[in-house]
From TrEMBL:
Species: Caballeronia sordidicola (Burkholderia sordidicola)
Source superkingdom: Bacteria
Protein name as catalogued: ABC-type multidrug transport system, ATPase component
Signal peptide stretch: none
Database matches in Pfam families: ABC_tran (PF00005)
GO MF: ATP binding; ATP hydrolysis activity
Keyword Metal-binding applies: no
PANTHER family attached to this UniProt entry: ABC TRANSPORTER ATP-BINDING PROTEIN
Residue ranges of domain ABC transporter in the record: 31-260
Keyword field: ATP-binding, Cell inner membrane, Cell membrane, Membrane, Nucleotide-binding, Transport
PROSITE patterns: ABC_TRANSPORTER_1 (PS00211), ABC_TRANSPORTER_2 (PS50893)
Length: 334
């Protein structure tokens, strides 16, 4: 059964004269970015022909070094910066042709701590809701403030709050109008461990309620824990988009470390095909292999070790983290 807006195509923003395949794609993708570029008068190009679809209800992590184009991309989608070329649609609404409808669906938590210093927490969050034409809803504002441990501070002026508390207020403002999409641009940079924990608990709850979340972060462990898909941007270009689990499977290297019974001076010639690394003290051999390698390869290695007179007393395996993969990808594109 199609949702009501598709049963009455004229009331659906992306259904007018569109083929069914396009309608179904719009249902799945809440943000559609096509051939997006941004150049400045100085000649600097911040984005180069970026195309990206964000799926409804997912957590998408956008990773990249400083100056890669992450904030520029977010700013364009949120209507803060105009693109030079390309199109962006938010739930079928063009960000330029139908700005109000597109922007009303988005909550943005920026990097900068910009707040109205002499307003109270309650007043500034309530005001943000009103900016989007939403009627007053004290119950919703209370729920948001409590979820961010701000309820006890609701009457405090922003100027009296710590940096971490101000960051919580920015998140509350972004959620004040009940957006369907939440952008988190480096949301936990420079904040305390408690806020990071509260923040990610909130993100999990928002995802469970159907909110689509796009985040940039320098804490790659957060992306590894939270994201459904990973995008990597470098020098204004998207260099990879992949399901997190598939990315880890395809690019994650594994290492087998063998603690030897007796130190050896060099790797025996009969083991040269494995490209084993010998530790400086001669007591450990390390075998690096791709996650896709056949399991039988390890068994063969262990047999060949014995055939070459190398005995080991212990072994352990480790796998590349998302951070290792990210560093590798960005390094290849320099």
């Amino acid at each position: 059964m199609f949702p009501p807006c598709l049963q009455k195509r004229q009331s659906c923003p992306f259904a007018n004269d569109m083929p069914l395949s396009a309608i179904l794609a719009a249902m799945q993708n809440i943000i559609e970015i096509s051939n997006l570029s941004k150049s400045y008068a100085s000649g600097f190009t911040a984005l180069k022909n970026v195309s990206l679809d964000i799926r409804r209800g997912e957590i998408f992590a956008l990773l990249g070094p400083n100056g890669a184009g992450k904030t520029t991309l977010i700013s364009i989608v949120c209507g803060i910066v105009n693109p030079t070329e390309g199109t962006v649609r938010v739930n079928g609404h063009g960000i330029i042709s139908d700005y109000r409808a597109a922007r009303a669906m988005i909550g943005l938590v920026p990097q900068e701590l910009t707040t109205d210093a002499f307003e109270s927490v309650w007043a500034t969050v309530s005001f943000s809701r009103g900016l989007f034409g939403k009627p007053p809803n004290p119950a919703h504002i209370e729920k948001v403030l409590r979820s961010l441990s701000l309820w006890e501070k609701k009457d405090n002026k922003l100027v009296t709050l710590s940096g971490g508390m101000k960051r919580r207020v920015l998140i509350a403002k972004a959620l004040s109008h009940e957006p369907e999409i939440l952008f988190l641009d480096e949301p936990t940079a420079g904040v305390d461990v408690e806020l990071r924990r509260d923040m990610w608990n909130l993100v999990r709850g928002l995802k469970a309620s159907g909110v689509t979340i796009i985040l940039t972060t320098h804490y790659i462990d957060e992306a590894e824990e939270m994201a459904d898909r990973i995008g990597v941007i470098n020098r204004g270009e998207i260099i990879l988009i992949e399901e997190k689990a598939e990315l880890m499977r395809k690019l994650g290297q594994k290492k087998l470390a063998l603690q030897l019974e007796d130190a050896i001076a060099q790797v025996p010639a009969g083991l040269s095909g494995y490209r084993l690394a010998l530790s400086a003290d001669g007591c450990e051999l390390t075998y690096t292999y791709d996650a896709q390698d056949e399991p039988g390869r390890i068994i063969t290695l262990l047999k060949d070790l014995a055939d070459n007179g190398v005995q080991f007393k212990d072994l352990q395996t480790t796998q590349s983290s998302l951070e290792d993969i990210f560093v590798s990808l960005v390094g290849e594109k320099k």
